[in-house]
Structures are given as structure tokens and as C-alpha cells.
Amino acid sequence: MTPARDYSLIGPERDRAIAIGLASAEWYHTDVPRKVMKGLMRRNDGPATRDTILWLGLLLLTGIGGIATWGTWWAVPFFLVYGVLYGSACDSRWHECGHGTAFKTQSKNDWVYALASFMVLRNPVAWRWSHARHHTDTIIVGRDPEITVMRPPDIARKALAFVGIPDAFVHFGVLVRQAISGPNAEEADYIPESEVPKVMFWARLFVGLHLVALLLALLTWSILPLMLIGGPRIYGTWHMVLVGLLQHGGLAEDVLDHRLNSRTVYMNPVSRWLYWNMNYHVEHHMFPMVPYHALPALHELIKDDLPPANPSIPHAYAEMIAAVLRQRTEPGYFARRALPPGAKPYVEAFHTETSLPEAS
Hints:
mainly alpha; 54% helix; disordered C terminus
């Protein structure tokens, strides 16, 4: 039985990762001709502008519908849709615009990134640095601040996350703490000191806006303002959690090959639109500067060097749950799949865990 690991960024696992060469290391990536990759990385305002207008338009329409029908059962379907558009779709918009790849025009990336950061309760400055570290040291224990499924797993907490509990309150608490005192010791490991004033500014702005919504709710003696602002991070977050857990859940830690620690899943068109194609997650981690709208083409180009994609969300959950349940007593256990014939072997030089049998 493997003991539980220390996932903090200031503990012994951090020193271990640095000592054995896992920090800021060179990762495996599939060979793609330079000219082809240049074409895939080409930025274009068109797809993101179209998708953002549709996203904000649907938010506006369903929000107005929810307000107009408030107090009746007709409000329920409006807020069910509004909640997912606000509390789940914000995550992928935050992610892609944070990479600066969604739009060709950087100011558009910055504007949507700030709005989505507010919706998802993430400090836009702190999380930009956090996500950069996540890509530099993906699922490296002691280095990656965005490991969501730790070992042994807290299954009850992950189940509650589908209704935003306690995650929404934890994230809001982080914003309050950052507004008062700035980054803590772990955040200071990846946020430059020069960025601290910006971290505190955005935290104060976001906390203030949410407190205004709370004040309106108290003054009107109605939860309607909170159904529109803040509340969707609780009641509409289920789709973000549904697809987000599949990114790395049940897969390998401390390896330098994204084919071992990331998962690509084929999804229905609605989920792909809400998720902005982040279901192609191995591809995204290998080539993070490829825009979301080019990921399907990238997948077709390199899929013969990747483990087969999970054919559906239920199939991926079956694989992940089998591994996560085993990790309750064997934290070193992880899901691993066979590579296609002719694919380059996995890079496992630093890999010390045991694995599930490869699929036949």
C-alpha cells in the first residue's frame, strides 16, 4: 500500500520533482511537420467571435426569460440553461482565452478571459500563472497547482463538486483572502512578486461585484440577483465538472508523456461546444498553442501516435472510476491504454507507479 502523497507546492514532493528532473522538463510530443503545425496554430477571430456572440446571446435571452417568468415553474428551464452557460461554459472560455489562442485579436482574448474568470470565481492574474505552471509540469506532484483528483481520492468531495459544493465557496474564499492579503505561500511559488498588486486588484473587484449581488438580494428579499450572478457557479457547474474530471482523472502522475496523464474523449456536439473542444485533451497538452477550433484536425493528424480516444463520456467514466476506486487503497494505481501499432513508445523514464493492464 502506497502512502498518500503531499500535493502542496512547498513540501518535500516539490524538492523531489526538482531533484529527479521532472520540473520544467522536456515533454514527449508527436512529430508534426513544421509547415503543417504553423497552419494549425494560425489564429482567427472568426470562430471565437461567432461562438462568443452565440454564448452571450443565449445567456442574455435565458436570463431575460428567467427574470420574466420568475416565481413560476416556467423559470426553471430558463435557469437550467442559463446556469450551464454561466457556470460551465465559462470554464472553457476562461481556458482558451487565457492561452491567448481563441481570438487573433488579443484584446478580445483579454476581455472574454476577464469575464469568464469572474463567472468561474478565478483570479485572472493568479490563474494565468497557475495554468502556465500546469502546462509546464502537468500532473507533477509538488509542482502542478491544478491537480484535481489527488490520491487517495476524496470521492465524496468530487461528487459534491457537481453541485458546486464546497468548491464555489472555497474559490470565493480564496478571492477574499487574496483581496485582503494577496497570494499565499503556495501561490507565491508561481506568481511573480511584481504581479501581486494586480492579483489583489482583481480579487477586490470580483469580491465587490459579488457582494453587490448579495446586497441586491437582501434589499429585494429575493434570491433572483444571486440566480443571475454567483449562483450559477453552484447550480450550473455540473457540466464543467462532468467533463473536467476526465482531463486527467485516474491517469498517471510524474511522467513526461501527455499520452499517459491526459485523456481524449469523443463527445456529443453540445458538450464539445460548451467545452470548446477541450475533450481533445492529449492534443491540447502536446500543442497548447493550437486554437480550440483546430483541435479536431490536429487529432486526425496525430491520432495514430496516441492511445485510442474514449468513444463516449460514459466509457471514459467507466475507465476513470475503475482506477479511482482502486486508488482508494492503492494510490499508485492508474489507467493505462495500449498504443496503436507503429506509435512511439511511452516516455516512462521517471515512472515508478503500477498500472492497470493495457487494453487488448
